Amino acid sequence: MMQDFKNWIDRNLKGDPIIWGIVIILSIISIVVVYSATGSLAYKKSGGDTEKYLLDHSIMIALGLFVMWLAHKIPYRFYGIIGKSLLFVSVPLLLITYIFGSSINEANRWLTIPVINRAFQPSDIAKLALIATLASLLAKRQKNIDDFKNAFLPMIVVIGLVCGLIGLANMSTAILLLSTCLLLLFIGRVPMKYIAMVILVGALFLTSAVFLGQRGSTFFSRIERFMDADEIPFQAEQSFIAISTGGIAGKGPGKSEQRNTLPHPYSDFIYAIIIEEYGMIGGATVLFLYLALLYRGMRIVASSTKPFGGLLSAGLSFALVLQAMVNMAVAVGLGPITGLPLPLLSMGGTSLMFTGFSMGIILSISRGDHQDSAEAVSEGGNKLRKSFQPA
Amino acid sequence: MNIKRSIVLRVRVAFLVVALFAGAIFYRIVHLQFVEGEKWQAKSETINFQYRQVSATRGNIYAADGSLLATSLPFYRVVIDPMVAKEDVFAKGIDSLGLMLSAFYKDKSAESYRRMIKDARSGKKRYLIINRQQIGYQDMQKMSRWPIFRNGRMGGGVIFEKVEKRYRPFNNLASRTVGFVNEDKYGVGIEYSFNEYLEGQNGKALFQRIAGGSWKPVFDAEDVKPDDGYDILTTLDVNIQDVAETALLRQLQAKEAAFGCVIVMEVETGHIKALINLQRNKNGIGYGENYNFAIGDQGLTEPGSTFKLLSMLALLEEGKVNLQDSIDTGNGRFKFYDRYMNDSKKGGYGKITVKEAFEKSSNVAISRLVEQHFGHQPSKFMAYVQETGLHQPLSFQLKGEGIPYFKTPGQKNWYGTTLPWLSIGYEAKLTPLHTLTFYNAIANNGKMVKPMLVKAVARGNQIHERYDSEVLRKSIASSGTIEKLQQLLEGVVQNGTAKNIYTDEYRIAGKTGTAQKLIDGRYTQRYYTSFAGYFPADNPKYSAIVVIDSPQGFAAYGGDVSAPVFREIADKIYAQDLQLNKKENEKTYLANATLPYIQAGRVDELQMLCNKFGISNHVAGEAADGWVKSVPVNRSIQWKPNKTEAPVVPDVTGMSLRDALYVLENKGIKVVYQGKGRVKGQSISPGTPANNAYLINLVLG
């Protein structure tokens, strides 16, 4: 019986089993905590129907896992091309969203897909696409990485464009993405002087986006409030109360009190709720799971034979874990309030699919069997990349 | 593979950085729990946050013509936090504030107000209700300019706590029908029956308790926005309601009756145009709307002679009698089993026709006929009752409708005397609304429509739900029978018990009813008098029922007590209704040959008016900015432009106050006025440079 199960797993869930395990554990934690945290939301918006959010969220998690399974089936060499085509789609999408999208908290970040009537953030697509494209660009230019004009310029243009567009409506995501890209450039052996230049250009783009965009004032007021030690923002204060009252072992599942006063307890501040209900033990476990995920992603870099696979894996793992770290840092008061969800744990609707997608790509790279055929298509991939260069 | 090694090394470096960051997060958790722990735990206990209700604005209730029957207005409770004001502000303002409060509320002296606030301040109180009496918006505006108060909430400590109150512009008019809802969601009338729509959806927001027990919203916006309630559009006609109420009240007072009610209904649609319930107040003085006798449980009574119409329907429908058949009523006394049936006329009517029997409301005749034809099979009679639907509730739009009561043949309580007494309206219970619905069906040529009070639920101009007239029975009897019943009802007013309300102007059809009241199981000398009918009989537009309970004095019959009220209501409706009153009145004034005196105003409005009335008019020259004065020229009116654009004081004589205010205040001139009507004179003559004028005095007349 156990043997059958193991065989089935071996047949269907390829790639790093530990990553599979971590994602599944985080998904289960997510369902349990979100169910608890949506209590007040359900009470306020759906007349007390808490199961509605449980069901919705579980379905989205299942869909995310399904997308992850699909993505890990595709040989990762295709993701270079997929990434670039997605990038071409996402730039106009970002513009459309900025101009027409529906606004939550006065920023246009969401676009509704007509048929299934689900809102999604085009910045999710753009993030994925940018990292894949960047990994591919870096991989191709490993031999002449010091060449400013041919190697570096295309990258900086793409990074600046995408981060700038995202920054118009969502500064936190843009800064996080920029940092991830910088990290990826560093890993991809780009000389430090160029990276310093990217910081400059990026800063330029982001500042202009702050002044032109919708959320400029929010951005500054949040930073100001973070700097101002005397006045702790309401959200942070409530989060601290949640964390400090949680204790070592927590109040127990579903016993959170702060979920009633903490804004967005199911997304932005889910980490505070986890600590309140499961204590320091729960908080440390989640922290450890993310680090383990990053560690496994790093292992893939070491074991991969092609730079593209390694860089893609590193980029996606860092993007996810960095966001997780920033979210948790906000909850414990190490950073200004950003509004970034905790990937894999927060109730986030469609963004769970994109997280699943990027986890699927990492898994696809971790499968040894896809690598063998990587050589065969690299010629075709080359031509495509050439045609991309002028952009 | 030095490239790969380099990449792997860099990844490890990055991983280490992230791991360090994770360590910092963990350190913060430990710090928060063990170092700052007590501080936050203490804070969690002191700060009091609560999700509190943000009330939705309750919907309005409108009459058919759009007049407001009930609406919600903001009122304010005046509260002060006496500790807020600074010493100099407080010391300087407290004396005059006391004076003003005393002058406003007129219940305490200036000194006692002053002392109350001062005591609260020295007692370090943070919440003092100045007066329980709530004030309106205008007064709130006025008060917020008073000393100390004018420094606002943060500087003076005044808090105007908003309370929403239900306000009825027409006071008691239809007040029972409009109804109320109390805080426990119990109530009556439309307010209660349509509460679901009216109350809307309350919102929620996070509030923080601040000193003094007040709650302050934490964020600007509500977490759950309140959804304002829907408006209810009723079928009530304010004019008819008013007319009917006045007429009923006068009769109740004259007859010192216990209670009375009137329902006026539109024949074709079942729209209730007026619904009045007046009951003598508990203290014995005056009458008030305390219970809906027309519809509710307590209104269920033995209907009396108005029920004879149903007996006639059964008899005619059965084909057993003709109106010209004669029947012997003998000496007005007839024995069924062990009980005597009496006619109201001493000595009886002798031998009369069936028609006369109905017109004179002979108990003996009707009960004998019914007993004769249905006595062997009472269930056949009951089948006719069921045919009309009178045995069941109407599922009327207001909650608490009375359920009609009828006995069932074959049951223990069905005696031999039940049928004869039932035939004249005893041993059964109906509400006035039921009886009226039946009479309305006769007026409507047999088509029974369901009475209705609410025609739509709307928000703004958007209709949310519309209620259409509902036909309960396409035909309650054959057309021949209906025609005969209509003849009978007209006969009652022409020759019968309601002869006193006969008029040449138009035709009334109806039936009187006088039922002895059953009190503690015995029939007493107190009566329940009613009149149900419709008008104009040749083409019925309205039906109505008038019920007056326990009138005092000699003439205590339906014809004497209730019928005159019906006539008065009918007269007034008939006089007001242009559609009904087609006949030219000789006294109508012929239009004067001279032109009407139109003075000044906007050219487009005046032209529209003149065109409507068919008065020829034209513009002389160019009407510069649309303001004109009129000049009569040969049976037509010429519009002369009134130059109001020039920087001089314009000529506003002849304008309505509204127009004059618009023109003058647009020039920055302050206006004061006296009188009513159009502008007769202005204190600054036209043509004076406008910048010299500051205040202008207008005389209206």
TrEMBL record, chain A:
Its EC number is 2.4.99.28. InterPro entries: FtsW/RodA. It is an enzyme of class 2 (transferase). Pfam families: FTSW_RODA_SPOVE. The chain crosses the membrane at residues 18-41, 53-72, 78-101, 159-187, 194-212, 269-295, 307-332, 344-365. It catalyses: [GlcNAc-(1->4)-Mur2Ac(oyl-L-Ala-gamma-D-Glu-L-Lys-D-Ala-D-Ala)](n)-di-trans,octa-cis-undecaprenyl diphosphate + beta-D-GlcNAc-(1->4)-Mur2Ac(oyl-L-Ala-gamma-D-Glu-L-Lys-D-Ala-D-Ala)-di-trans,octa-cis-undecaprenyl diphosphate = [GlcNAc-(1->4)-Mur2Ac(oyl-L-Ala-gamma-D-Glu-L-Lys-D-Ala-D-Ala)](n+1)-di-trans,octa-cis-undecaprenyl diphosphate + di-trans,octa-cis-undecaprenyl diphosphate + H(+). Keywords: Cell cycle, Cell division, Cell shape, Glycosyltransferase, Membrane, Peptidoglycan synthesis, Transferase, Transmembrane, Transmembrane helix. It comes from the Bacteria. Coiled coil: none annotated. The keyword Ribonucleoprotein does not apply. GO terms for cellular component: cell division site; plasma membrane. It is a multi-pass membrane protein. This is Probable peptidoglycan glycosyltransferase FtsW. It comes from Mariniradius saccharolyticus AK6. The lineage of its organism: Bacteria, Pseudomonadati, Bacteroidota, Cytophagia, Cytophagales.
TrEMBL record, chain B:
It is found in: Membrane. The keyword Transmembrane helix applies. SUPFAM superfamilies: beta-lactamase/transpeptidase-like, Penicillin binding protein dimerisation domain, Penicillin-binding protein 2x (pbp-2x), c-terminal domain. Residues 643-701 form the PASTA domain. GO terms for biological process: cell division; cell wall organization. Its main location: membrane. This is Cell division protein FtsI. It comes from Mariniradius saccharolyticus AK6.
